[in-house]
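Hi support team,

I submitted a single chain yesterday and got back a structure, but I'm not sure I'm reading the token output correctly. Could someone confirm the output below corresponds to the sequence I sent? I've pasted both exactly as they appear in my results page.

Thanks,
R.
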Amino acid sequence: MMTRGEANVAVTPLKGMRNWAGLAREVLSGRAVTREEALAILLAPDEDVPALLDGAFRLRQRYFGKKVKLNMILNAKSGLCPEDCGYCSQSAISTADVAKYPLLSKETILEGAREAVRRKAGTYCIVTSGRRPAPSEVERIVEAVREIRATTDLKICCCLGFLTPEQAQQLADAGVHRYNHNLNTSANQYQAICSTHTYGDRVETVETAKAAGISACSGCIVGMGESPEDVVDVAFSLKDLDVDSIPINFLNPIPGTPLEGRKELNPRYCLKVLAMFRYVHPAKEIRIAGGREVNLGTLQPLGLYAANSIFVGDYLTTEGQLPEADWKMIEDLGFEIETCAL
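Hi R., thanks for writing in. Yes, this is the structure output for that exact sequence:
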């Protein structure tokens, strides 16, 4: 199926936006990419993909060299969520066959950290389903984080839903380095994918984490019916929020969710998205996140010419590539795993 971006490749105002090496040089010299230029990247013809990635790699190499950050997710609380996010297999309206369980024990969370080390991950991501964490859940996670910090060199990222300022401060005091709360899509598109909370709620959560001194991680999901303009809007909203890490998810349409069967993406468009985010955010961590195996397919390695981070192992409710395959992919590229993310 043709993507919305491909359907508009010949838009007249973008004519002539083909000197991607020149654009990369200007970004390296300090000039910010404009919205029009970002949109031109998404609407570029497929034959421009190698040149786009060449420019993106120049930026990536300036700030991250050939290092790749590995992140591992622990689904610490699954299902049981009252929200109606259309992409999520754990939502209240999903009929997907996924595991449902309350917050895992402290020991299980600690074992997850040990597994992250075995998988060569530098960042350990503790993720829970639900609108917001209960006080008792925050306490258990805080206890686990303190022990992980005392016994490993892992960077700790939490993704627990909406936070109060007090909860954010608890996490910060325990040693949580980063908090993930994705914007997911543009403000204009948000009500098409969720009605139980707002885009503004998500922005507020990112700001709450930052106010507590926690590094902000926030990204998007591509392939949910949004336009290329919506993807550009998210990229610039994240720039305005000055987040440190940007996970780019590509929709994996899970049966039982409202978005099941949706197939808008192809590998070339996904690579354009990754390149666009690198041009807009030259010095930020950009992570190829959920859906990379499904949507990038055999072109997965090329994504790392723009991105500098991936998840290793499984995602929340879907399987990922084997860690050994990721290690080999990185080796074959001539890149190296970043052994410590601190």
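A quick pointer for reading it: Confidence is low (pLDDT under 50) at residues 1-16. Let us know if anything else looks off.

Best,
Support desk
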